[in-house]
Amino acid sequence: TTTTTTTAATTTKYAGPFDVLKRCYQEGGIRGTYKGFWVTFWRDAPAYGVWFCSYEYVKCSFTPANGQASNLVLLSSGATAGVLSWFITYPLDVVKSIIQTSPDNTPPEQTKILNVARTNYRQFGWQWFFRGLSPTLIRAVPTNAVTFLVYEYALRYMNSAFPTPRSR
User: Fold this and answer.
1) Per-residue pLDDT tens digits for 106-158
2) Do residues 81 and 52 touch, judged by C-beta distance below 8 A?
3) Burial of 115 (0-12, 13-18, 19+ CB in 10 A)
4) pTM: predicted TM-score of the whole model, two decimal places
5) What are the residues facing 110 on neighbouring strands?
6) Is the dihedral of CA 96, 101, 107, 110 positive or negative?
7) pLDDT (tens digit, 9 = 90+) per residue, 8-67?
8) What DSSP assignment string belongs to 25-93?
C-alpha cells in the first residue's frame, strides 16, 4: 500500500530515502535498486573528468607562477568547470532521467540508452536533449564556484594542520 500525503503544491510518495530504497527493492529486486546505474556511470565518468580537468586548467592559467590562486580565480574556475561539465554531459543526463523515471513494468529494451535517445530524437528533435539546460547552467555557476572555493580552503587547512614530511 502506497501512502501519500498531499499538500497545496506537492504529493509525497515516499517517507524518505530508506523508504525509496525499500520500495525499489520490493518492486524490482536488487535490479530495481540499480535502475539507471549504467547510464549514470556513462554520464558521470566524463562529467567528473571534464569537471576536475577544466577546473585545474582554468585555475592554473590565471594563477601567477609560484603564487596562490585568489578567491576570484578559485570562484571563476569552479563556475567555469561546472558549466562546462554540465554542458557537455547534459544530453546524457536527460536520457538518464527518462530511464530512471520509467515505470517498473517498462520492457527492458525500451530503457536502453540508445533506444531512449533515438526514440526521443525522432519524436522531438535534437532540442529534446537540451530541455532544462538553462536553469541547470545558472545553478551550476554558484554551486560549483563555492564547491571548489571550499575545497581549496579545506585543502589548505589540512596541509597546514597535518603537514607531510616533504611540506615541512
Assistant:
1) 898 999 999 999 999 999 999 999 999 999 999 999 999 999 999 999 999 99
2) yes
3) middle
4) 0.80
5) none
6) negative
7) 556 778 899 999 889 888 888 888 888 889 999 999 999 999 999 999 999 999 999 889
8) HHHHHHHHHTTTHHHHHHHHHHHHHHHHHHHHHHHHHTS-TT----HHHHHHHHHHHHHHHHHHHHHHH
